Amino acid sequence: MFQIKNIGSLPRGQRNTICDVPGVKVGHVTLADGECQTGVTAITTHDGNAFELRTRAAAHVFNGFGKSVGLVQVEELGELETPILLTNTLSVGAVSEGLIEHTLAQTPDIDLMKATINPVVFECNDAFLNKISALKVRPHHVQTALGAVSQDFEQGAVGAGRGMSCFGLKGGIGSASRRLELGNAAYYLGAVVLSNMGRLPDFTLAGQHVGPQIEAKLETDESGPEKGSIIIILGTDMPLSERQLNRVARRACVGLARTGSFLGHGSGDIALAFTTADPVDTKSRKRTHSVEQIDERRIDRVFRAAAEATEEAIINSMLNAEQVTGRDGNTRFALREFGE
What we know:
Distance between the termini: 6 Å
Largest sheet: 6 strands, mixed
Helix content: 10-25%
CATH class: Alpha Beta
Strand order of the largest sheet: 4-3-12-11-10-9
CATH topology: L-amino peptidase D-ALA esterase/amidase
Order of helices and strands: EEEHEEHHEHEEEEHEHEHEE
CATH architecture: 4-Layer Sandwich
Number of helices: 7
């Protein structure tokens, strides 16, 4: 198996996942049965009511070949009012419905307020391994995934990542984190990715261009166009404004490029960054609010952390995945099968 000692220069968090950020949790529902290879992954930013205590966030679309839900309002208001859900492309509607049902159950007075809900759901296309048209993901799977959220969660071919492919191998859910010091305070920045992109000839592992040698072992030709997608979720407890979060989200592309992806025409590549600092209390009656943010002369380390955590999370999504055979006998081999 490949041994990855260091990616970048910043120290990892204790868990080396996004859950090093206090309050953040991740949970999955995995559907793995023959031609059904798919699932749902949920990310929560705190244990409270997400609609009432909103998390500051920003998103950036690198290449818009995707069908995500909720990005327009996040861009406009700079906040999340639901957990973040990941799934396959044709299940976005079912997962959105489930997330709306979850929010209504938590906050029944939404109906009395004549308010609406902005579910945030991201997707990648897992149709190579999963019979995506069977629509096996249903709204109730959202509640199950949310009920399973924990600081300790599985990576690899689980949840929304069950049917995903990455650089012609098995992809899926991956995570990593970095520890940041600002004065006497320590903060964390973590990434969760849903990896489903890249061409095997381009694959670069911690600076080593290993794709061609793996391709030779497989005796296949993976030189076609880059298709697929990646969703990158970055979370931190560092105080950042919504504008700064957008800048951080854009740096995820650096980590993505280091693995060999060039964001091809058919790839949907999106990053969302959030901070658990300074949540928006919708029940507050204050007329003005003060928001703390990092001095931008010190933000370079945050950018570096976003790049490093993204790169390592992609690699972890592959190293933690096992070989999967799904629809029509299609198979994706695991990266760890080619380790030295």
